[in-house]
Amino acid sequence: MLLFYWKKNKMKYFAAFDSFIKCVLYLSISLTIITQYNLSVLGDTSMNASKGIPITEELRLNVPNEYKKAWLKAEQEIWEPWLSKQEGFISRQIFYNEEKGQALLLVNWENKKLWKNISSEEVHVIQNLFEMNVKKTLNISENPFQLIYEGELFNQK
Question: What are the pLDDT digits (tens) for 24-38?
């Protein structure tokens, strides 16, 4: 009886199986295309982030209250002129929290690529000039301003 039922409905089973296979095939192709598209969009986003989207460098420093004036003076004499000559530099904001004795510097760049094109050796040279300036001004042997945090921010308009 089962064999008779199979022979009679064999075409229906093959048609249903054929439809099922086609459906699975179309679904897998669709998912592949969607995944590839999403990956390319993500790639474009990260590429834009490194090439065309403005970025803000975030720096947090310990700046003891008694050294605040010397720190600001050294920032203006050393970092400001150097930054203003860097390709991609837009502006810089300096904030100070007297309760914590901490400074927040926000340095705005045209994009990440231009910012990161500056060699670490060049930054190190400027940092050394800054530290020598501070130590001479304050007549101390160690740099009293310690970096707490360094990061990057993207505007979320």
Answer: 556 666 667 776 655
